[in-house]
């Protein structure tokens, strides 16, 4: 008979359970004001444009749009991404260096798959993106976290970590990060890039939120500073729709063959009809106008959240003030576990994600992720007021 | 600087290059009659029905159809698959035991990911499905091939292999296999199941072509014989459209949690809009009528191929006579490398896939895969006539 103990591969032993999934289960009730989600605001999805694009694709391409296709993805879509890199970030990325992936989540899986042996050092910022921690954990690296501060990576700690561990790759979301909303400042990027320049480490720059900027200075990509050693991950989930699962990976030449092999083994190719519909949308609608609408709504909601926090939270709770994206980060005075605050909050029908799962050591964190993309301004004011009451009571200010 | 030699993970060392891709590149010219492809016939795609379903989904569900969704997949679609198992194969598979995957290719990746450690024995039939060999190779198993004969697996060789290597899993496509078109007969399945019953091995039964039967007796699934140790892989690519990349994995309870974790890490979930469109199609159109159309066309084309082979091929070339699917297998007299035949054939503008990539040892095979789903009856007669001339010359009959 099958031996239960030996059934699974070793790589399944270290994968963190999705704590957020468990949290979200407790927050589905309609009375709960939830800052726990991580979804784009569905009110902004371009439903009619998707409808027109789907019909347009089937009328124009018919069976071709429904057949098997190349593993690298639709070439015109890769061209569009290449042109977008040029127009938005002055980056010179050839379409041949882009593979369409089934969400940027797949990009995380592919890059770890082709690069990471068990025990290899893998650097990442902390707090870090949970989806990346989960994807990477399957390949059993030794995680080498570097603290993320309100203006970016801890440069000294980064230099020490690269020097000591020589990680094969380092993962970062430098703009409007999930979970923190923090961006690396341009000055921080300069210093960070200088540290990487003297290392053997490949930098994975994940940028799902970069286009959702509503204030502050433009930030230059690490790929502009370190073109030969930066792998870019991108996504249409936050600027178009997430349900299509279309992202991409852009990498230096020497990685492309192995990435293509891994992509083909993973799912042959990304949904081709969806790629065609997306391209049709990009060619016939204005995604810039659409992004402007998203920015305006998220900007107002973020503004409502920071204003409410200023009124309601004790001064000892420090918060990020993001210039874009969907999240804001609150740091509680030392020793106050965010899980305790969560337990009190859920009794008052307000939810957030305690910081615990965003640290690879699974610590009892004193940090909170607050999502502002999916709650309207009145809900934000009310929810933050309830949280403020709980925090004032707990902290005693 | 980066060290090129140490750049990639060890798992990338053993992945076979897609030989078929290279072959297909040589056969894109319109003058070539190609039996080398592996595509469903695009003339049969239900374009108008997809169009109606896409519009219907957006009108009925709007933003919901475009948002992030659960990793396991759309529950009603999993219910449909569960009911289909019951109605078509008298199998009792609960929807909770089904995960929607990004094509059945992803199912191959997930099952190997959660089960296979480097060096673990993994059994498979030989010739075997190339996509599976590629997906599995990334996890560096020791492949333990078992010969596939015209009526199914070599039972003696299977018993010896299970006894000697105790493989963690064994992979098979028992109905209308790719590449051979061979099915395990019911008698063969009885004997094979008996061998597995006395082993610790999990059976992976991949069945993308099972519904495309145009003659012969119904074959009972291994899952009916070995419900506790069979993992089923399925696909809508051959009965609906491949471009949607929708497949599924159906597994015993004890595998579901790890499969779900691996699925979430791989791409969060499969394109949700496409799942909704497919479900809408299944609810508003008759897929049974559609499958009947596919069967009729493929049956005629297979008939044309077997008739032409009887006329044109030397008697010493033995061929399978599939009751379904898309492929037919030709076994040349010993010592004649199919690659030589391929080189001669391509000069005459006819193509097929030499058997080499379907064996894990990469041998110079004396076997040929002939696809009949994408060439019409006249093209089949002409292409087989050209191949017959080449074979008669080479074999000297």
TrEMBL record, chains A, B:
<comment type="similarity">
    <text>Belongs to the class-I pyridoxal-phosphate-dependent aminotransferase family.</text>
</comment>
<keyword id="KW-0032">Aminotransferase</keyword>
<dbReference type="InterPro" id="IPR015424">
    <property type="entry name" value="PyrdxlP-dep_Trfase"/>
</dbReference>
<dbReference type="GO" id="GO:1901605">
    <property type="term" value="P:alpha-amino acid metabolic process"/>
</dbReference>
<protein>
    <submittedName>
        <fullName>Transcriptional regulator with HTH domain and aminotransferase domain</fullName>
    </submittedName>
</protein>
<keyword id="KW-0808">Transferase</keyword>
<dbReference type="InterPro" id="IPR004839">
    <property type="entry name" value="Aminotransferase_I/II_large"/>
</dbReference>
<dbReference type="InterPro" id="IPR050859">
    <property type="entry name" value="Class-I_PLP-dep_aminotransf"/>
</dbReference>
<dbReference type="InterPro" id="IPR015421">
    <property type="entry name" value="PyrdxlP-dep_Trfase_major"/>
</dbReference>
<dbReference type="Pfam" id="PF00155">
    <property type="entry name" value="Aminotran_1_2"/>
</dbReference>
<feature type="domain" description="Aminotransferase class I/classII large">
    <location>
        <begin position="44"/>
        <end position="387"/>
    </location>
</feature>
<dbReference type="GO" id="GO:0008483">
    <property type="term" value="F:transaminase activity"/>
</dbReference>
<keyword id="KW-0663">Pyridoxal phosphate</keyword>
<dbReference type="GO" id="GO:0030170">
    <property type="term" value="F:pyridoxal phosphate binding"/>
</dbReference>
<dbReference type="InterPro" id="IPR015422">
    <property type="entry name" value="PyrdxlP-dep_Trfase_small"/>
</dbReference>
<comment type="subunit">
    <text>Homodimer.</text>
</comment>
């Amino acid at each position: 008979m099958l031996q239960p103990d030996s059934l699974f591969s070793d790589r399944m032993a270290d994968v963190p359970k999705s704590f957020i999934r468990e949290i979200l289960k407790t927050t589905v009730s309609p009375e709960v004001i939830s800052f726990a989600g991580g979804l784009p605001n569905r009110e902004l999805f371009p439903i009619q444009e998707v409808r027109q694009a789907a019909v347009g694709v089937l009328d124009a391409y018919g069976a071709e749009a429904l057949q098997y296709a190349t593993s690298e993805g639709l070439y015109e879509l890769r061209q569009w991404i290449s042109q977008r890199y040029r127009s938005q970030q002055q980056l010179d990325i050839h379409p041949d260096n882009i593979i369409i992936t089934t969400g940027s989540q797949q990009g995380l899986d592919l890059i770890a798959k082709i690069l990471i042996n068990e025990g290899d050092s893998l650097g990442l910022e902390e707090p870090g993106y949970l989806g990346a921690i989960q994807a990477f954990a399957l390949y059993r690296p030794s995680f080498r976290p570097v603290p993320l501060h309100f203006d970016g990576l801890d440069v000294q700690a980064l230099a020490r970590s690269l020097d000591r561990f020589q990680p094969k790759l380092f993962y970062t979301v430098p703009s409007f990060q999930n979970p923190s909303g923090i961006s690396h400042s341009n000055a921080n990027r300069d210093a960070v890039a200088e540290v990487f320049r003297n290392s053997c480490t490949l930098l994975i720059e994940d940028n799902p939120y970069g286009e959702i900027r509503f204030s502050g200075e433009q930030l230059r990509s690490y790929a502009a500073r370190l073109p030969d050693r930066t792998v870019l991950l991108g996504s249409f989930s936050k600027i178009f729709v997430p349900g299509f699962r279309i992202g991409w990976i852009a990498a230096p030449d020497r990685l492309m063959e192995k990435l293509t092999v891994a992509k083909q083994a993973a799912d042959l190719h990304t949904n081709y009809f969806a790629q065609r519909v997306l391209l049709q949308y990009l060619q016939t609608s204005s995604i810039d106008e659409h992004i402007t609408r998203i920015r305006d709504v998220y900007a107002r909601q973020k503004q409502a959240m920071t204003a409410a926090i200023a009124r309601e939270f004790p001064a000892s709770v420090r918060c990020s003030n993001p210039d874009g994206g969907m999240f804001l980060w609150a740091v509680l005075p030392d020793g106050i576990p965010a899980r305790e605050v969560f337990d009190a909050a859920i009794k008052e029908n307000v939810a957030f994600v305690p910081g615990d799962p965003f640290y690879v050591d699974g610590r009892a964190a004193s940090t909170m992720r607050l999502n502002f993309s999916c709650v309207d301004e009145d809900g934000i004011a009310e929810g933050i007021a309830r949280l403020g009451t709980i925090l004032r009571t707990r902290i005693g200010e």
